[in-house]
Amino acid sequence: MIKDTVFKSFDNTSALEAKLADNIARQLQDAVDSRGKASLVVSGGSTPLKLFDLLSQKSIDWAQVYITLADERWVGSHEKDSNERLVRGHLLQNRAASAKFSGLKNMFTTAEAGCDMTISALAHFPRPFDVVVLGMGTDGHTCSWFPCSEALDNALNTQALCAAVTPTTAPHERITLSKTAILNSRQIYLHLVGEAKLSVYHQALAHDDVSKMPIRAVLGQRKTPVDVFYSA
Ligand SMILES: O=C(O)[C@H](O)[C@@H](O)[C@H](O)[C@H](O)COP(=O)(O)O
């Protein structure tokens, strides 16, 4: 049983996105004011697109903000399943166009082979990450930590920043930030939309087995604050 998560429920997705975009913008600007630069890790998938649109319009010092992804499918950055494509089309727009983005995919043929290069590409990021925004799948995965995937143990236990994953339940080989990387953050948000995700979230809280629902690796820890933002 996992206790004490901060859970914020909103009447609709617009209210959720407005509040989450305000929080993230404030935390990034605070980081720039105190340390000169800030870092933001975002997730792909369908949930965060409107959040990205709103965030891109915030008036903060984006030129000092370093942005990357929690995970990426090992496909070209113009392909429809690319998370980088979503970030470029929705977040790195408007005022946020001046942010410094590093994607996770590189020219290596496989994620396994490209992992070290991705780690080097992120070496200059301010860490701990200031803000991490995670999503969750209805199987309880977050990032590309898929339940029962052979690579899950490595993604959850390596001290390296990234791990390669080939899920059996989702398309594409992937690269994902590791648990070590994600938890080395000042603030994590878990962005959930829809009743199906709420039910999965409750199932995740009810037990401790991380291999069955890897989101528990985030919800069941006390090192890094996690705020869950939910709307039906
Ligand atoms: O690349 C990805 O797929 C993700 O980063 C992944 O972890 C995502 O956040 C969840 O699968 C939720 O996806 P949806 O928002 O599409 O439901």
UniProtKB/TrEMBL annotation:
BP-aspect Gene Ontology terms: carbohydrate metabolic process; pentose-phosphate shunt
Pathway(s) of this molecule: Carbohydrate degradation; pentose phosphate pathway; D-ribulose 5-phosphate from D-glucose 6-phosphate (oxidative stage): step 2/3
Database matches in Pfam families: Glucosamine_iso
EC number(s) stated in the UniProt entry for this protein: 3.1.1.31
SUPFAM superfamilies (alphabetical): NagB/RpiA/CoA transferase-like
Domain Glucosamine/galactosamine-6-phosphate isomerase residues, every copy: 12-221
Uppermost EC category: hydrolase
InterPro entries for the chain: 6-phosphogluconolactonase_DevB (IPR005900), 6PGL (IPR039104), Glc/Gal-6P_isomerase (IPR006148), NagB/RpiA_transferase-like (IPR037171)
Reaction(s) this enzyme catalyzes, per UniProt: 6-phospho-D-glucono-1,5-lactone + H2O = 6-phospho-D-gluconate + H(+)
Sorted UniProt keywords: Hydrolase
GO MF term set: 6-phosphogluconolactonase activity
Domain of life: Bacteria
Record carries keyword Hydrolase: yes
Family membership noted in the UniProt record: Belongs to the glucosamine/galactosamine-6-phosphate isomerase family. 6-phosphogluconolactonase subfamily.
Described function: Hydrolysis of 6-phosphogluconolactone to 6-phosphogluconate.
NCBIfam families per the UniProt record, alphabetical: pgl (TIGR01198)
Annotated protein name in UniProt: 6-phosphogluconolactonase
Top-level taxonomy: Bacteria, Pseudomonadati, Pseudomonadota, Gammaproteobacteria, Alteromonadales
